[in-house]
DNA sequence: TGCTAATCGAGACGGTACGTCGTGTCTTTTT
DNA sequence: AAAAAGACACGACGTACCGTCTCGATTAGCA
């Protein structure tokens, strides 16, 4: 927690500590109680904040969840092992491990996007980021001649991401990341290597 | 509606008419009022059923929504145009058109699955069905030598489904089905054809 | 239980065993679960009877409760110790002890009487019986010159019963029966004795 | 109604207007629809209050009914005619007249008290209040030497109340209040007056 | 002996109420 | 002016109970 005992007004301007405390509280609740515990009341209480403050920072629950997810996911740097299939496998492994804990949150955002256009737009943008993150890695693989000729790198990137999300949604985060990587990347790899 | 005026017990066993009437009512409400009108109270009232009956058939609202979705989507017979890429494109076209109206319902089910294990299981089973639906089509394509040697048909089937869901979630149902099909299937197709 | 394993039709006429079993079951449930467990569903299940049978014997829940109470209360013979105040005290003691277990049932009947005229009538008749039961005892006390001159025996009888019911309703069954008897009877007793 | 159009939060503390509005609504419903119309949903709707608010003020329906009864019965000031028997008679007359309309409500509370400890406690307290109300009146009668020597005033007060409740329960509100008063008070009165 | 009539257990059904929960808005009091 | 506090309206959810109904099996009495 960024502030322990109490947090008061800091005068006639918003107090960023409040927003932090709210996100911290939400994260803690998610860890301890799961999705069902992630209510606006509980978050505010946990943060020793008021719902007024919560709604001053985010227009609705979905926006808060998204902010929470973005803050928690951290950077999406992909490794460079020299082998695309290994890069993908390691990413799947890392992402699945993360999602074991908070994949629910991501699913919930998907749901929230149905009622809230703001969340929906943010989700669309988020997808694009994830896909774009892959492009440099894929270009290097292409330079190493790992890929079939004329491979559509964006399509491949999207496929990688789509499969990750698909496995999250269908609750198969326990799958072997290496096998999944092979299945997804396989057809894009040059045969005679 | 399967029965108009009244519907009574048919003895010491569930009356399928009741379940039908409830699904009919839910479908009608979805059409007329949208997702927000799909409350258990409203559905029961519309069906002239009691909530007891509704909850006898489905353990919670999510399960009912899934049943509704499954029933509405109809059979998933894939066409056989003699060209896999066209088969996939046509399916995407059909599915996206359906989802334009009730994709929300499906997204909602995904969300509901996060805090309801029953719905989650049903969703997992649903995925398997969708994937299995594709296998015969893919086998025929293989016999026609459309696919690269040693193609993992199940992986391909899963990829087809994963992309569809991914596009739904990221709100890109307006995308060109043919282009998407080409991107998904492309790398699995034999080159020298 | 009057019948152990199963109880079938005995032809084209009601089977009294069924009614017995239902009352037995109700009594057992009341003992074990209290008033809240005394639902028509639970009684039927406990009796291995069907609700159809239950409602064949009694038109509604109130009637069943009343039958149960009447059967359980047994005879209301009052003792004759030679002292009215002792007679009353012993009766209060016995009745309060009984009500410790099933006074709730009696209160429930009072409630049921509000919606059901049949139960109401039965309750009125029941009061009259209780009052009349006291008259012989009071007459003997009068002959022993225990009472003030010109005592209205019916009024006294009613007062005795009214106080018992009042203590039941206001949950004071733990009161000392002798003290209560003295308070109720006191003013009716001749002083110089 | 204490507030007509809208009623909002008045800060971080309960708004008594809400409770008032709820009781008003309940009273109105009782008048118009009778006991069966007195559902928590209907009361909340009529009061333009939320069920949350209703249950914030009273733990359950029974408690609300009791509050309603207490408020409606008004003050229990007993008249002082200079004659105890007349005071009692007039009170019986007034109470019986009131109960003609809402005795059901009181009976229902008695019933509710059987499976709700909160209501039970309230009912017990209510009895004590009613009994205590009588004590000043009885003391004045004693000072006027109306009562026999050494009369237990509390016992007498309780007897007065017990008989009233008894007559309510056994549906004899049509009885002559003067006769009843004479029967109840008679033995407590000094003879040679 | 085969037929008829009514009961029985079983449990689903319509209807209706209850009490809980979650969201987003509001107002007061304190800083 | 912003913060904590928490009450508020709205409205959904899932549970419980009552009294009615239909089924298939059962049994006694009549033909």
TrEMBL record, chains A, B, C, D:
Q: Which UniProt keywords apply?
A: DNA-binding, Transcription, Transcription regulation
MF terms (GO), sorted A to Z? DNA-binding transcription factor activity; transcription cis-regulatory region binding
Q: Where is the HTH tetR-type domain?
A: 16-76
Q: Locate the DNA-binding region by residue range.
A: 39-58
InterPro entries in the cross-refs? Homeodomain-like_sf (IPR009057), HTH-type_TetR-like_transc_reg (IPR050109), HTH_TetR (IPR001647), Tet_transcr_reg_TetR-rel_C_sf (IPR036271), TetR_C (IPR011075)
Asked whether the keyword Transcription is assigned, the reply is: yes
Q: What is this protein called?
A: AcrR family transcriptional regulator
Look up and give the organism this protein is from: Aurantimonas endophytica
């Amino acid at each position: 927690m960024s502030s322990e005992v109490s947090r008061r007004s800091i005068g006639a301007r918003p107090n960023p500590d409040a927003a932090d405390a709210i996100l911290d509280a939400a994260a803690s609740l998610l860890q301890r109680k799961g999705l069902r515990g992630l209510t606006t009341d509980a978050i505010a209480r946990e943060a020793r904040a008021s719902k007024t403050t919560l709604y001053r920072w985010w227009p609705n629950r979905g926006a808060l969840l998204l902010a929470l997810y973005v803050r928690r996911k951290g950077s999406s740097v992909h490794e460079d092992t020299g082998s695309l299939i290994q890069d993908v496998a390691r990413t799947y492994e890392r992402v699945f491990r993360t999602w074991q804990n908070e994949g629910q949150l991501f699913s919930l955002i998907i749901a929230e996007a149905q009622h809230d256009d703001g969340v929906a737009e943010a989700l669309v943008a988020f997808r694009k980021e994830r896909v774009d993150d892959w492009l440099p890695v894929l270009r290097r693989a292409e330079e190493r001649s790992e890929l079939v000729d004329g491979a559509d790198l964006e399509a491949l990137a999207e496929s990688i991401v789509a499969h990750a999300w698909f496995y999250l949604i269908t609750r198969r985060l326990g799958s072997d990341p290496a096998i999944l990587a092979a299945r997804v990347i396989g057809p894009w790899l040059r045969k005679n290597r």
